[in-house]
Amino acid sequence: MTNLDELEAQSIYIFREAFNRLENIAMLWSLGKDSNVMIWLARKAFFGHVPFPVVHVDTGKKFPEMYAFRDRYAKEWNLNFIRGECPPVEDIDPSLPPAARSAARKTEGLKWIVEEHGFTGLFAGIRRDEQAMRAKERVFSPRGEGGKWDFRDQPPEFWDQFKTDFPPGTHIRIHPLLHWTEIDIWRYSLRENIPLIDLYFSKDGKRYRSLGDQDITFPVDSDASTLEEIIEELETTRVSERAGRAMDHEAEDAFERLRAEGYM
Amino acid sequence: MSEAARSARDLLKIVMVGHVDHGKSTLVGRLFHDTGSLPDGKLEAIKAMCDARGMPFEWAFLMDALQAERDQGITIDTSQIWFKTKQRDYVLIDAPGHKEFLKNMITGAAASDAAVLVIDAHEGVQEQSRRHGYLLHLLGVKQVAVAVNKMDLVDYSEERFYEIEREYTAYLASIGVKATYMIPVSGREGDNVATRSEAMPWYHGPTIVGALDAFGSVTELRDLPLRMPVQDIYKFDERRIIAGRIESGVLKVGDELLFSPSNKRARVKAIESWNTPEVAVEAGAGQSVGIRLDEQLFLERGEIASHVTAAPVETDVFVGRLFWLSDQPLKVGSRYTMKINTFEAPVEVQEIKHVIDTGDLGETVSEKVERHAVAEVVLRTKKMMALDSFNDLSRTGRFVLVDGYDIAGGGIISMEGYADQRDLITMASTNVTRVEHEVTDTLRAARNGHQGGVLWFTGFSGAGKSTLAIEVEKRLFNKGYQTYVLDGDNVRHGLNSNLGFSPEDRAENIRRVGEVAALFGRSGMIAITAFISPYRSDRDRAREAAGDRFHEIYVHADLEICEQRDPKGLYKKARTGEIKDFTGISAPYEPPVNPQLTVDTGVNDIETCVQQIVDYVGEHFSATSRPAVREITSGG
Q1: In the predicted model, what is the mean pLDDT of chain B?
Q2: B398:A159 CB<8 A
Q3: Based on the number of CB atoms within 10 Å of its own CB, is B598 exposed (0-12), middle (13-18) or buried (19 or more)?
Q4: Which residues, 6 or more positions from A28, have their beta carbon under 8 angstroms from its beta carbon?
C-alpha cells in the first residue's frame, strides 16, 4: 500500500464507523479542496453512494466560482444537498477581532442547522497540519450543548476505538481527514482526478491556497497553475497554508476562541 | 512531474513520552529547527512571544500552541506535527507528561510506530519514565529510543549518562523491553539532536535523527493470519456487501472464509470498490474493503472473518492486562461494554488478579483498580467472543472498556491458563437426528424410586471431592439409590485417555464427563462427578448437557488447607514447577457463583459433609418431589 492508500483506508474506516454507530449524520461541505476529497472518500466508503445529507453553511460571501461549483456537483454527484443560512455579522460577539467575527457567523449558522435537523454527527474536513488548535483534535470529537468544544478535557482515543456514545443534547464532530496533510490532499486529488475550483490555480502570479469568504481570504504569490505544479510548490514552501486567512493573524488566540465555540 | 511528487514518501509515526519537565517539547522544537522543518516566521513569532512575556527564548512554545499551555508552561493534549529528514517523513506526536493527562499520552502513543522516551540527565529516572516505558510495552510499541536529555546541565558527564543507562536498561529488561537506542542529548543546545555533539566525544552511537531514520516501518501484517472484523453490511443497490478492514493477512477471491463466533462459512465471490482502475482479486492488511460472498449468510457487525485453518480463539473469558482511565475505580462484579475492533458485548469483571506497580513492578492484591493504575483482571461475557492473544496477533488481541458514555480503560488479551473453546462448541457431525425413547423419565423414576441426576463436585485438589464422592456413593447405594462415581483418574484411563493437560484438553475432558454424566442422569441414575473443573465455562456446559438434573456442589476448603493435606504430593510438585498449570498455584480456579450446595471440609469433618449431601439428595431426588418431570424428548 502506498501512503495515499493508507490514508484512504483509514478515512473509509472512519466513515463506516460513524455511519454504523451514529443515528442522524450529515457532512459539512465548504466547497474547498478538502471537503471535495471528503465527499470522494465517502463515495469510496459506500461504493459510489453518499448515504447522508451534505450541508453547505452559506455565509453568502463566497466567490461566484464556488457557488457554480456547488450547484454543478451537488447534481452530478447525486448529493442529498442542504443549504444552511448564517445570521448577519451584527448579531455576532463584537469582542472578536473583525475577520474572526465575520467567520464566526458560520458557527452560528451551523448551530441553527444542527438544531433544525437534529444531527448527532457531523463530518468536517479539518486536518491536523492546518493549524495548531486543529492538531489537538480527536477523530470523533464530542461537542457539548451549543456546539462547544472542551479541548482541555477530551476523550481518550486509541486503537481506532472512537467515542460513539454521548448524552442527548450533544453531538459528535467526525474528522475523516484529520490525519491528512495539505500535500496529501493535492496528491490524492491528482490521482483520483477530483474536480476542483479554478481559484486554486495561479492567475497573474497569484493563487488561493485556502478558500473562505471573499472579503477575508487573500491569494498568495504563486506560479503554480496545475495540480502537478502545486504539489511541487508545496514540497519546497515554508509559508503556512492559512497565511491568506485574515482571522488567524488578528490575535494569538483568535482561532482558539473560534474553535472552542464550535467553529470548524 | 517527478515521481516523488506523485507518491508520498515513507512515513513513520513517532511519539515523545517521558516525565513532566524532562524537556520533551524543547527537544521537539530543536528537532524541527535542526531538520529545517519550521515554517517561515515561526522562529520569529516564538521570539516575539517570549520577549512579550519577558522570558528567554523557549523552544517548547512551538508545540505548546494553546494559550492555556503557554501560560501554564505544560502540554495539555496530544499534538501532532510533521517534519522530514533526508530519509523520510515523520509525524511527531507530543504526549504530555503530567500524570492526570495519561489518557492523552495513551491516545498519542497507541497511534505510533516508535517512541522517543525522554529522561532528564539531572533528575534521572522518575516515576513517569518507568510508567511510560511500561505503557509503551502494553500498547505494543516495540521500537524505543531513550534520549537522556539536558546533558548540558550535568557538564556532559559520561559517568552520569552510563549511570542512567544502566538503571533504565535494567528496568526495561525486567518488563521484557529492549531500548533500541540510548542517546545523550541536549535539546536546548542541540547536542546529538541532528548533529553530533562535540561536547560528548565519548559517545559513538547515533543522533536522535540518526536513530529515527534507523527505525523500521511497521511489521508486515500481511504475512500474519487473516483477520477481517465485519464493520457493516450494506445494501445500497442490488449488491449485498460485507464491509470491513483487514487487520492482518490477505484475502483472495475464491477463498473460503470462516466467520467467528457464529462459525458460518462462505466463499469470497468478489471484492467490490468504487473508482479504482481495475477489479481487485485480492486485498491485504490495512485495506478497508467490501466483499460479496457466494452465499447469503446472516452476519452481524463484530464477527471476525478468517481462513478456516487459522481461526481466532473462541471464548467467553480471558485475562486482560489493562490500564484504567476512569475516575470510577474498576471493581470485581462491575459491568462494562467491551469493544474488540468492531465487536461489542457486555462484560463483567470476574476477578482482579493483581494491581501492578509500574514503578517497581510489584504485584498487589486489591479489591479495585484506581484511575491510572495498571492491573491484570479476568473478564467474562455471556456470549462467545472471537479474539486473539495479543502476543499472537496484536490487532485483534486488544480491547477497551466503555462505562456509560466514556472509554474507561483499555488493555491487551492473554489466554494464558484459559482454553480456546472453539472445538467444544463446534459440531462436526451433520445429518444427525435424535430418536425418541418410549421409556419416560417418570417410568424410570417409578422403577428406581428416585429421580436421576448429576451431583457435580467442584473444588481444589485436596478439598476432599473424591473422598466425599466415594463415601456418598456408598451411603446412597445402601439406601437403595442407583448411583455411580465418575472420577478424574479413572476416566482418564479410558474415555479420555487421549487427552493431556493443556487448557483445551482439560476443557474437552470436562465436556465429555459432563455429557456422560448427563446420560447417566437421564438413564435414571445419580452420577457423582469428582473433578476440580476449575472453569466456569466448562461447568456451564456440563449444566447445559444435564439441564435441570444438574446439581453443582462446591466442595470448599481454603487453598492453604488443601496444600497442607496434599494427598498426592501434587502441590509440592507444582510449587517446584515440576507440574505446570496447576489449579490454585499456577492456573486459575473460578469458584461457582450460585452452587446448589456448598460443603466446607476445612471447617467440618467428612461425616458432617457426607450427611449434608445425603440429606440434599433425600430432599431433591425423591420420585415424586419434582414438580414437572421433563420428558425425554426435550432433553434428547
Answers
A1: 87
A2: yes
A3: middle
A4: A35, A55, A56, A57, A110, A122, A123, A124, A125, A264
Please indicate whether residue B326 is annotated as part of the active site. no
Contact B405, A167 (CB under 8 A): yes
Which one of the listed residues B533, B537, B586, B622 is annotated catalytic?
A: B533
B446-483 confidence digits (pLDDT tens): 999 999 999 999 999 999 999 999 999 999 999 999 99
Q: Which positions ≥6 away from B111 have C-beta within 8 Å?
A: A158, B13, B15, B93
Q: Report how far residue B307's alpha carbon sits from residue B9's, in angstroms, rounded to the nearest whole number.
A: 33
How close B77 gets to chain A, by Cα (Å)? Answer: 6
ipTM of the complex: 0.90
Say how many domains are in chain B: 4
Smallest Cβ–Cβ distance between B236 and the set A6, A47, A132 belongs to A47
Instruction: Please check whether residues B269 and B300 belong to one and the same domain.
Output: yes
Q: For testing the chain B interface, which of A39, A47, A143 should be mutated: the one with the most B CBs within 10 Å? A: A47
CB-count burial class (<10 Å; 0-12, 13-18, 19+) for B383: exposed
Residues B48 and B105 placed together within one structural domain of the fold? yes
Instruction: Test B273 with A232 for CB contact under 8 angstroms.
Output: no
Same domain, B246 and B195: no
Q: Give the burial class of A204: count Cβ atoms within 10 A of its Cβ; 0-12 exposed, 13-18 middle, 19 or more buried.
A: exposed
Q: Looking at the structure, tell me whether residues B270 and B334 fall in a common domain.
A: no
Q: pLDDT tier at B407 (50, 70, 90 boundaries)?
A: very high
Q: What is the DSSP letter of B507?
A: H
Amino acid at B428: A
Are B300 and B389 part of one and the same domain?
no
User: Residues of A with CB below 8 A from B284's CB?
Assistant: 1
Q: Is the pLDDT of residue A239 over 80?
A: no
Confidence label for A253 from pLDDT (cuts 50, 70 and 90)? low
CA distance B496 to B516: 11
Q: Is residue B259 part of a domain?
A: yes
* CA A143/CA A158 separation, integer angstroms: 19
Looking up residue B356, the CATH number of its domain turns out to be 2.40.30.10
Q: Which domain holds residue B286?
A: 221-307
% residues pLDDT > 90 (chain B)? 58
Residue ranges per structural domain of chain A: 3-180+250-260
What is the C-alpha to C-alpha distance for residues B368 and B478, in angstroms, rounded to an integer? 50
Tell me whether A231 touches chain B (CB under 8 Å): yes
Considering the domain architecture, whether residues B273 and B323 belong to the same structural domain is answered as: no
Q: What count of other Cβ atoms lies within 10 Å of the Cβ of residue A82?
A: 18
Residue B430 domain-assigned (yes or no): no
Q: Which chain B residues are Cβ-neighbours of A133 within 8 angstroms?
A: 65-66
Contact B581, B503 (CB under 8 A): yes
Q: Using one digit for the tens of pLDDT, what is the confidence trace for B418-443?
A: 989 988 887 777 777 888 888 988 89
Contact B40 A132 (CB under 8 A): no
Cell of B596: 446448589
Do residues B75 and B137 both lie within one domain? yes
Is B424 among the domain residues? no
Q: Could A44 and B1 be called an inter-chain contact, meaning their C-beta atoms sit closer than 8 Å?
A: no
Which one, of B215, B17, B218, B34, lies nearest residue B116 by Cα? B17
**Cell numbers that stand for A223 in this block:** 506560479
User: Mean pLDDT throughout B596-609?
Assistant: 95
Architecture of domain A3-180+250-260: 3-Layer(aba) Sandwich (3.40)
Say which CATH number the domain at B573 has.
3.40.50.300
Instruction: Spell out the long-range contacts of B202-210 with Cβ–Cβ below 8 A and sequence spacing 24 or more.
Output: B202/B158, B203/B158, B203/B161, B205/B181, B206/B181, B207/B183, B208/B27, B208/B31, B208/B116, B208/B145, B208/B147, B208/B183, B209/B31, B209/B34, B209/B35, B209/B85
Contact B79 A135 (CB under 8 A): yes
In a domain, B431, yes or no: no
Answer with the one of B287, B307, B327 that is the final residue of a domain.
Answer: B307
Task: Please check whether residues B328 and B258 belong to one and the same domain.
Answer: no
